[in-house]
Amino acid sequence: MRHLQFASMKHTARIVFTLMLCLALAACGGREKATDTTAAGEQPQVSSKPLTIKGSDTMVILGQRMAEEYMKENPGSVVQVNGGGSGTGIAALINGTTDIAQASRPMKDDEKAQAAKSRGAEVVEQAIALDALAVFVHQSNPVKQLTIAQIKDIFQGKTRNWSQVGGPNAPVVLYGRESSSGTYDYFREHVLSKEDFAPAVQTLQGTAAIINAVGQDKNGIGYGGIAYAKDVRPVGIAAEGKAAVEPSEHTVADGTYPLSRKLFLYFPQNASERVTKYTQWTLTPEAQALVTQVGYFPLNAK
């Protein structure tokens, strides 16, 4: 009996020893595998959590261009930019599903209050570029300038024929943005005096879609950020009692263009370092040079 017990103990000891040896080898193998994936003298890269930016369709081309350059200058960082409209981005900031909201209009007081409550800190408003909200017509349209009052009448359906504003005898075809757009809100406030658009306005998703529609419709008229002005013509705009002004870096910077505005980033004051590092970078000379490349105007425009 003692012999059998001794044999059983020896068998158990061998099993324990074998298990310990396997575990030790597995641990060594895991370390060697991790080391093999790293070049000599370099530390293993640690994946970073993506920085998310959401909001203004007007700012998408600028946001994406900045994100690309930032990731080049900061290897290992990931910046994701999505549109959907300023209102959508602000809502995402409030509910915590984005780090930064892009907006082509200022946040409203009630939106700031909601964001402060949900994020546990006040919201930081940071302008990163200047923009001319332009009114576009087809390149063949002879109308070169319009007053704010004329534009209001056009988009409210009171002016329905181009001949009423010095153009050809042809119907005016209206193109506009969806209600979640900051550009929609800005235009409605500063041109329509917060009154409603005409039911005839064809609502399109994004300024690029408006440009495409107006560029193919000789009777079309639409509005949007100046950076999208390709194969269409922005008209000069006259405020009440003043001469018409063309949208340009100079007229936006000195405020003589009636529909000048700033483009904003919004984020909570208690944002993480990766958020503040990015937002501070957008104000550097390198980032502001990208603003010009995209077609907007830098904050220091003269």
Secondary structure: elements and pairs:
Blueprint: H1 2-36, E1 51-55, H2 60-73, E2 79-82, H3 86-95, E3 100-103, H4 109-119, E4 123-137, E5 145-147, H5 148-155, E6 173-177, H6 182-190, E7 202-204, H7 207-216, E8 220-225, E9 233-234, E10 236-238, H8 249-253, E11 260-268, H9 273-281, H10 285-294
Parallel strand pairs: 1-2, 1-3, 5-10, 6-7, 6-8
Antiparallel strand pairs: 3-11, 4-8, 4-9, 4-11
Helix pairs in contact: 2-10, 3-4
**CATH H-level homologous superfamily name of the largest domain:** Periplasmic binding protein-like II
CATH class of the largest domain: Alpha Beta
Stated plainly, the CATH topology of the largest domain is called: D-Maltodextrin-Binding Protein, domain 2
Mean pLDDT: 87
How is the main sheet built?
9 strands, mixed
* Count of the separate structural domains: 2
Low-pLDDT residue intervals, each spanning 5 or more residues: 1-47
* Shape category: globular
**How many strands?**
11
What share of residues are in beta strands? 15-25%
Supply the CATH architecture of the largest domain: 3-Layer(aba) Sandwich
SS content category: alpha/beta
Helix content: 40-55%
Cα separation of the termini:
101 Å
Number of helices: 10
Rg from C-alpha positions? 29 Å
Q: Could you please describe the fold and organization of this structure?
A:
This protein is of the alpha/beta class and about 300 residues long. It has two domains: about 110 residues, Periplasmic binding protein-like II (D-Maltodextrin-Binding Protein, domain 2), CATH 3.40.190.10; about 120 residues, 3-Layer(aba) Sandwich (D-Maltodextrin-Binding Protein, domain 2). Helices cover about 40% and strands about 20% of the residues. The strands form two sheets. Strands 1, 2, 3, 4, 6, 7, 8, 9 and 11 form a nine-stranded mixed sheet that branches. It is globular.
